[in-house]
Amino acid sequence: MTTTQPASNLNSSNLDSPYLYNCWYVAALATEVDNEALFSRTLLETSVLIYRRADGTPVAMQDRCPHRFVPLSMGKRDGDDVVCPYHGLKFDCSGKCNHNPHGNQLIPKAAQVRSFPLVERYGFLWIWLGDREQANPDLIPNYGPLVDGHPNAVGYTYMPRDCHYEVIIDNVMDLSHVDHLHGEIISTRGQLTPKPPVVEEDASSVTAHWRWEQTPAMLIFNQFLPAPQDSARHFIDITWRAPASVQLSVGATQNPEYTDLNLRNCTGQYDLHTCTPENQNRTHYFFATRRNHLEDDAEFNAMKIKAMHDAFVDEDGPIMDAAHREMGTSDLFSLNPVLLPSDVAPVKVRRKLAEMRRNEQPSGSAVNNR
Amino acid sequence: MTTTQPASNLNSSNLDSPYLYNCWYVAALATEVDNEALFSRTLLETSVLIYRRADGTPVAMQDRCPHRFVPLSMGKRDGDDVVCPYHGLKFDCSGKCNHNPHGNQLIPKAAQVRSFPLVERYGFLWIWLGDREQANPDLIPNYGPLVDGHPNAVGYTYMPRDCHYEVIIDNVMDLSHVDHLHGEIISTRGQLTPKPPVVEEDASSVTAHWRWEQTPAMLIFNQFLPAPQDSARHFIDITWRAPASVQLSVGATQNPEYTDLNLRNCTGQYDLHTCTPENQNRTHYFFATRRNHLEDDAEFNAMKIKAMHDAFVDEDGPIMDAAHREMGTSDLFSLNPVLLPSDVAPVKVRRKLAEMRRNEQPSGSAVNNR
Amino acid sequence: MTTTQPASNLNSSNLDSPYLYNCWYVAALATEVDNEALFSRTLLETSVLIYRRADGTPVAMQDRCPHRFVPLSMGKRDGDDVVCPYHGLKFDCSGKCNHNPHGNQLIPKAAQVRSFPLVERYGFLWIWLGDREQANPDLIPNYGPLVDGHPNAVGYTYMPRDCHYEVIIDNVMDLSHVDHLHGEIISTRGQLTPKPPVVEEDASSVTAHWRWEQTPAMLIFNQFLPAPQDSARHFIDITWRAPASVQLSVGATQNPEYTDLNLRNCTGQYDLHTCTPENQNRTHYFFATRRNHLEDDAEFNAMKIKAMHDAFVDEDGPIMDAAHREMGTSDLFSLNPVLLPSDVAPVKVRRKLAEMRRNEQPSGSAVNNR
User: Fold this and answer.
1) Which residues of chain C have a CB within 8 Å of the CB of B42?
2) Cα A115–chain centre separation
3) A single Pfam family, by name (chains A, B, C) (predicted)?
4) Do C5 and A328 touch (CB under 8 A)?
5) Which residue of C has its CA nearest to B104?
6) Between chains, do A87 and B341 touch, taking CB under 8 Å as contact?
7) Interchain CB contacts (distance < 8 Å): A and C
């Protein structure tokens, strides 16, 4: 006999945990949490309350009152505090109870909601669900280019999905799927599939690079090049960083003088794919993209982010969900997949992430319970 | 591989059972079972058939034919008997097979549906799901005041909920939530929250008493008092009795002569909250209320029970269900709740109920299977 | 933490398997798979892709790419091949990868989808999910009479159900339910219930025979007899064959000269009930019926198959599903059912099937994984 909705397993993390805890995850787009509302989202099987203080600073704590376990998001704000709707306990934005209307009104020492470090950066709210002593904001990777430039040249979107988060990472880390799954607009004319990327890794990241030439250029770029129907040289650079962020830069040029292709000398865009497990079967998928052309065109900007959102939801999404239904929560490698040259990067990511999970000490897990 | 709908666990009760069996539960409001229909409800994970004999006496038996396990409620009545829709076995209202149309028409000794003692009392049908030898109707607590008085002064309602039954008991046993969760109409003007009740217990009950003064009186009563806007003294008395019934009396008076407040000298009402688990995640919640004022007003009566039903469904209900989703079926105490002075009564109930469950002997459980 | 959709358990079959593997199941009606589409159905918890080659021959393979486990049915056909929608691997109709567009385009040895022997016969597609070395089409029972005769005298239908497949077999093997569950049109006027059939069995089949007289004849036949309101002699012969097919012949005659009643001398019909588990809680139920009267009447034919489909869906279906909800996936005998004389045939089937499952060697199971 088990409940249909598992309670948080923050209290029972162990060596077999499917999640990495001591790291920064995206909890929400910055725009999802306005100045008024109590926003709730389940992350790593834990209900999390997020709201902004009067000065705009976002804060996060477990979305349950420590008394009778009612979600605080069902309560009301009182300035920067939040009041439980059930028996009126009030908590400050660090989760500390600062008013108990009951009995002698003494505040029980244990009346403390677990709060989570939360940082607003690059248009996202980043949360740390592990040992808070280790929650150094400098560990958030630098995605500064997203917020460096014209506001009409960047877009963000959120796409909840019914699949395991590692299936989403796999999808981005193996871009050889582009010519098979996606439409004409981002076709590489078959260039990407036969060309295994150059893959590099270090202690906490995996990078893959592709360089190719195609005629015409990718249709998302060719109209911005000098000779739209002619050949152009392209690049893609992707970098995964733990736990679940993949930064992708892609661009094209027709200038033969550039030997080292990058976004400074190509027409292109700087994207971030990042995702956070709700549980092992559902994932919060966030995406942002900045382009370096037609930067002030708000209408084009809205069309662009909508087109990318729709491609993920209509093309990648059903494929990823269906693969997840076939795989369940089994470890990929236990299913003996046939691996292709294009799998080098996603396989390195899976192995590195599994190693990082194993390395999270049980002592660290114990700290989670404070 | 398990089925999505668990079969009855009456056959597998054990020391860790989440339910008390040897006790009276409410199976239905008396009005839910008419003179014709075969009524079915799942109680403690067991499908139960209830119907009324021609003389009006309600009877209960397991809602499955012992041959091929089809619910008898899908069959037809034949006088006081019920006929299985699948192969025509007929059972009398004690569950004994009295007609087998097959083969030599001999009735197999084992062709006996388990019947359950059922008593109609106080507007409810009370069922005994444990050892029938112990099913003494005198063990049904006396809720006589519900049926003692004008028929237009009492109302009943039924509210199925998606939470554990103990969460519902907790809700009624700690009335300090009234000023936080509920609206103006039953506000105590903050009186109840700081005031821990006087709590008493005996072997099978837990009682709590509140006494306070407020201005004006609770809005459900003040219009019936001599000076509606003036101060009035109030009382609430609640008594839990196993397994899951809480009787609540509440009233107000402006007569300074009364020192011992009760429903004989106050304007007030006599309520019964009682609930029966469907399983560990769903509960049948029943409620009845009798008032001692405006007793013959049928329209007021209908408004009153509707208003109380709506308050439970709209205000208590979502909070209880959300707390259950956070708690799952975990034992409350295993989650280390912060306990407040107002928790004394509900905690005593949880502890007493747990002890009673532990005390149900395995031998008693074995008897269940007859 | 488990997924809501179990991955295939073909890789983990064991001695406690709830299914027989080395046998022919019906995967689909022949008409369900047209000349174009990639048809997908889950059989024994395994996703199966079925399509027809250009020459019309149907083929079956596991509906997942061995690379990233995407259902191939989401892909596209390329002649007789199928192309995975995700990364473009192409497979021939035996499941062998014949094109890999990645890297050096070498085809990994392991890039082989498990294919399943599939035979189109008697209007059905029969699939073998076990050890393919044993997949002898001669083991498909002879249901030739279905396709031997006028095309307007036979009908087929498909009825997915929310119950265990053995509950469906039980239903057909004990026809004593006809007078209780079904309507006037196939009433035996109480003849079948008291009359246990003659039951015979051999190594792989169980047969039951009923012979009776009724007035008037079954209403599905009486209008085709010389004296519709008079008495007629009837027969039913049913034969179960593993795993889950029951052939039923039923007819009536008013000619006293016939002593050995059968479809050659009676007005009657030749039916096949056959079913295939999707999992332990859902079953694909297929039905076909051929009559030996009014054989060229297309309108009557359409009415006839619709009436039978409706009777199964409206009358048998809810009863079988409800029985399953009570039983769960428990073994019938573990629930101590009361058995009647009419249960001899279905009990023999359950016992024989359980024995056949037990006899499937683990070595055979290992072969499954090729």
Assistant:
1) none
2) 20
3) VanA_C
4) yes
5) C194
6) no
7) 98
Phi, psi of C351 (to 5 degrees): -70, -40
| Burial (Cβ within 10 Å: 0-12, 13-18, ≥19) of residue A152 | middle
Q: And the tokens for C50?
A: 């079925």
* Interchain CB contacts (distance < 8 Å): B and C: 98
Residue of A nearest to C63 (CA): A326
C16, closest residue in chain B (CA to CA) = B1
Contact between C210 and C235 under an 8 Å Cβ cutoff? The reply is: yes
Q: Residue B214 — very low, low, confident or very high, per pLDDT cuts 50/70/90?
A: very high
Tokens found for residue A12: 């029972």
Where helices occur in B165-293 by DSSP H, the ranges are: 165-173, 178-181
Round the average pLDDT of chain A to a whole number and report it.
93
The mean pLDDT of A187-201, rounded to a whole number, is 93
Q: Give the integer Cα–Cα distance in Å for C232 and A125.
A: 81
- ipTM summary value: 0.92
**A72-78 — which CB contacts under 8 Å span 24+ positions?**
A72/A38, A72/A113, A73/A38, A73/A39, A73/A40, A73/A47, A73/A49, A74/A38, A74/B318, A74/B319, A74/B322, A75/A38, A77/A36, A77/A38, A77/A51
Q: Cβ neighbours of residue A109 under 8 Å, at least 6 residues apart?
A: none
State if pTM tops 0.90.
yes
Alpha-carbon torsion (B145, B149, B151, B153), positive or negative: negative
Taking CB atoms and an 8 Å limit, are C88 and A279 in contact across chains?
Answer: no
Most B-contacting residue of C9, C325, C336, C342 (CB-CB within 10 A), to test interface:
C325
Q: Choose among B177, B279, B329: nearest Cβ to A86.
A: B177
Token representation of residue B359: 């005390």
pLDDT in tens, B40-91: 999 999 999 999 999 999 999 999 999 999 999 999 999 999 999 999 999 9
How do strand B115-116 and strand B97-99 relate by DSSP bridges?
Answer: unpaired
Residue A361: pLDDT band by 50, 70, 90 thresholds?
low
Of B207, B280, B278, nearest in space to B245 by CA = B207
Q: What tens digit of pLDDT does each residue of C221-257 get?
A: 999 999 999 999 999 999 999 999 999 999 999 999 9
> Neighbouring chains of C at 3+ CB pairs within 8 Å?
A, B
Q: Looking at the DSSP assignment, which residues form a beta bridge with residue C158?
A: C286
Q: How far is C334 from chain A (nearest CA, A)?
A: 20
Is the C-alpha dihedral spanning A25, A31, A34, A35 positive or negative?
A: positive
Cα–Cα distance for residue pair A178/A171, rounded to 1 Å: 10
The token pair that represents B368 in the structure block = 């269940």
Choose, out of B83, B84, B87, B106, the residue to mutate when testing the contact with C (most C CBs < 10 Å). B87
Mean confidence (pLDDT) of chain B? 93
Tokens of C324: 């399953």
Report the relative pairing of strands B283-291 and C24-29 from DSSP bridges.
unpaired
- Cβ separation C196–B102 shorter than 8 A: yes
Q: How many Cβ atoms from other residues are within 10 Å of residue B321's Cβ? A: 17
The 10s digit of each residue's pLDDT in A203-212 is: 889 999 999 9
Under a CB-based contact definition with an 8 Å cutoff, are residues C266 and C279 in contact? no
> Given this model, what pLDDT does residue C17 score?
81
Please give the helix or strand (H or E) that residue A347 lies within, else none. Answer: helix A344-359
Q: Are B230 and B195 in contact (CB under 8 A)?
A: no
Residue A186 three-state SS: helix
Pick from B18, B177, B194: which is nearest to A105 by CB?
Answer: B194
Identify the pLDDT of residue B16.
64
DSSP states along B299-338:
HHHHHHHHHHHHHIIIIIHHHHHHHHHHHTTS-GGGG---
Residue whose pair of structure tokens reads 């920064």 in the numeric block: A24
Query: pLDDT (tens digit, 9 = 90+) per residue, A268-290?
Result: 999 999 999 999 999 999 999 99
